């Protein structure tokens, strides 16, 4: 593994007060959101979603259908914004790119041996280049959690640097897979490592491991982004993913962002929600706020 341009000094990273994190996350979850603000918050959350399909049975037809929903989450209501991106495997990037042409919806692709990340670096780079050459605007890579937990930070950092280089103009989201990192201290350390060596976004999870985007984990990562910004002036994005199923959870995430990072991060350019299943619940809540009653979920397309 090639040497790093600068060593990673984990000793400078402050320890996390786990009790304090959990208490603050729980307190912010109780924040009351009034009707007008709630409608605006729901639409903002929709605009931040990365609609995702990462299954072995994925097909071109399924991806095209997902792209239609991404562009028009609620057909007939132009006030509902399109989502931020559609995320697919590298071999389906070209299909999504064609289906989304001119819509403003970005194409993201997982790479680097998703979801385990346990393939040689050469394979990870080939995976990344295939996605980028096919038109991906964003790459979601996974770190080698085994290397990280064993203290081989140089290997993790070197792979992030190499994949960032292979991304070219595409943005890089680095997935920490927080459910396997065991402690908040490790989550903070991994967040700092990823940001230091090239991440444009840091992301909680692949969606394949639980627990995933818990409020405490999200808060720890947001605080790491805040501290990194104060030190470097660089704004790094954040993407919670995994286990986010309700509009209440999505709105709670927006409160966490606003209270920790401020309004500057309340944009799809700096905050995403990796939770396709939450889209319909957001749409159902939007209909409820407009009409006063819930619509049956059968009125919304299944992803």
Descriptive notes:
The structure is a single chain. This protein is α/β, with parallel strands linked by helices and 303 residues long. The protein has one domain: Alpha-Beta Barrel (TIM Barrel). The chain is built from 11 helices and 7 strands. Strands 1-2-3-4-5-6-7 form a 7-stranded parallel β-sheet. Strand 3, helix 5 and strand 4 form a beta-alpha-beta unit. The model has no long low-confidence stretch (mean pLDDT 94).
Which SSEs are present, and which pair or pack?
Blueprint: H1 18-29, H2 35-47, E1 50-52, H3 60-71, E2 85-88, H4 93-99, E3 106-111, H5 121-133, E4 138-142, H6 145-149, H7 153-167, E5 171-175, H8 184-196, E6 201-203, H9 215-232, E7 237-239, H10 247-260, H11 278-291
Parallel strand pairs: 1-2, 2-3, 3-4, 4-5, 5-6, 6-7
Helix pairs in contact: 1-9, 2-10, 2-11, 5-7, 8-9, 9-10
Condensed summary:
With 303 residues, the chain is of the alpha/beta class. It has 11 helices and 7 strands.
Keywords:
11 helices, alpha/beta, 303 residues, TIM Barrel
- Percentage of residues in strands: 5-15%
Number of helices: 11
CATH topology group: TIM Barrel
Number of domains: 1
The overall pLDDT average reads: 94
The SSE string, one letter per element, is HHEHEHEHEHHEHEHEHH
Over all CA atoms, what is the radius of gyration? 19 Å
Helix fraction, binned, reads 40-55%
How far do the termini sit from each other?
41 Å
Largest sheet descriptor: 7 strands, parallel
Number of strands: 7
Q: Which structural class fits the helix and strand makeup?
A: alpha/beta
Are there runs of 5+ residues with pLDDT below 50, and where? Answer: none
Shape: globular
The CATH C-level name is Alpha Beta
CATH superfamily heading: Aldolase class I
């Amino acid at each position: 593994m090639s040497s790093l341009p600068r060593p990673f000094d984990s000793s400078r990273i402050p320890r996390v007060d786990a009790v304090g994190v959990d208490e603050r996350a729980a307190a912010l979850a109780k924040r009351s959101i009034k009707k007008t603000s709630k409608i605006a918050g729901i639409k903002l959350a929709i605009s931040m979603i990365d609609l995702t399909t990462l299954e072995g049975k994925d097909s071109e037809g399924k991806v095209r259908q997902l792209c239609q929903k991404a562009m028009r989450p609620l057909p007939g209501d132009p006030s509902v914004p399109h989502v931020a991106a559609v995320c697919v495997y590298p071999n389906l990037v070209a299909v999504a790119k064609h289906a989304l042409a001119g819509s403003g919806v970005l194409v993201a692709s997982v790479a680097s041996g998703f979801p385990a990340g346990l393939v040689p670096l050469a394979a990870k780079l080939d995976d990344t280049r295939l996605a980028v050459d096919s038109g991906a605007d964003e790459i979601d890579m996974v770190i080698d959690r085994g290397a990280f937990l064993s203290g081989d930070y140089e290997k993790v950092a070197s792979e992030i640097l190499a994949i960032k280089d292979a991304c070219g103009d595409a943005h890089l989201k680095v997935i920490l897979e927080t459910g396997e990192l065991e402690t908040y201290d490790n989550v903070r350390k991994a967040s700092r490592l990823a940001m230091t060596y090239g991440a444009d976004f840091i992301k909680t999870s692949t969606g394949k491991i639980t627990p995933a985007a818990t409020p405490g984990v999200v808060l720890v990562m947001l605080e790491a982004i805040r501290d990194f910004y104060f030190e470097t002036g660089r704004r790094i994005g954040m993407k919670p993913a995994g286990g986010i199923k309700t509009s209440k959870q999505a709105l709670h995430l927006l409160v966490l962002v606003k209270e920790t990072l401020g309004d500057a991060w309340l944009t799809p350019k700096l905050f995403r929600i990796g939770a396709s299943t939450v889209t319909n619940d957001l749409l159902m809540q939007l209909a409820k706020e407009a009409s006063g009653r819930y619509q049956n979920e059968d009125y919304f397309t299944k992803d």
